[in-house]
Amino acid sequence: SVKRELNFLLDSEINFSSIENLILKKSNIKHLESMSLSDVYENKKLPDGKKSYTISFNLSDKTKTLSEKEISSTMNKIQTKIETEYKAQLRS
Questions:
Q1: DSSP 47
Q2: H helices within the chain, ranges in order?
Q3: Which residues, in sequence order, are CB contacts of 51 under 8 Å at separation 6+?
Q4: Residue 53 in contact with residue 18, Cβ under 8 Å?
Q5: pTM of the model as a whole
Q6: Could you report the average pLDDT of every consecutive run of 10 residues in the chain (92 residues)?
Q7: Per-residue confidence (pLDDT) for residue 90, from 0 to 100
Q8: 2-91 has which fold?
Q9: Where are the domains of the chain?
Q10: Are 87 and 11 in contact (CB under 8 A)?
């Protein structure tokens, strides 16, 4: 299994369970095994009404080792879903 993280800036009222429901239950994303919230950051340095979530994703394929291309493709789908649904911004 492979672990990757994405860090998003999003509106404060968005909760992780909503994101988890979208990605794990509604999106049918291939190779995604699980996801978890690694870090929440709320600070005066962030824009008003915003918070930062670092989300960990575990990817795997039961039959083979995932290629970097498959991993990137899966992560891009996840990123696009979260950005589109929640108007989130990816942070570096």
A1: P
A2: 16-20, 68-86
A3: 9, 10, 11, 12, 40, 41, 42
A4: no
A5: 0.93
A6: 97 97 93 97 93 98 96 98 98 88
A7: 98
A8: Alpha-Beta Plaits (3.30.70)
A9: 2-91
A10: yes
